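Sequence only, no structure available. Ideas?
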Amino acid sequence: ARGPRFAPGPGFPRACVVAGLVMLAALLAFPRQAFAFEWTFGVFLLEPLCVRLGRRSFLAELAEGDWRTWVSLWVGVLVCGFFWEMWNSLSYPKWVYHVPYVGFGKVFEMPVLGYLGYLPFAMVLYQVVLLVFRRPPLDLLGSAPGTRGR
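Reply:
I predicted one. Tokens follow.
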């Protein structure tokens, strides 16, 4: 909970919205080249919404040097992703990935760089929970919502 602090200025949420919209536009205009934005644009669009609505946000936690949510989400989703891909590789029918430019080094059926897509996927799902529920039904670290180790 006492990691490096990242405290961007007040214009940062607006820059996130612009970046998210640019990513979405690029994805729609050039899907083969901008496919990685499929997983990332949502984080950039939902984070400012969380901030604006007064929900927990990654930016507020990082400003305090609290990286626990970020790390927990990433570790958890990589573990889940590993098992999802393992079960997929043994199933029939199964998902077969054809990823432009990065389809090498497969772990099960997923190219190794494809696992990076799970990271923003976890963040977007968490942001959706924060937006749908005024008080999240479960805090990742077991503390009551809003107390975060205080």
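The chain has a mean pLDDT of 86.
Hope that gets you unstuck.
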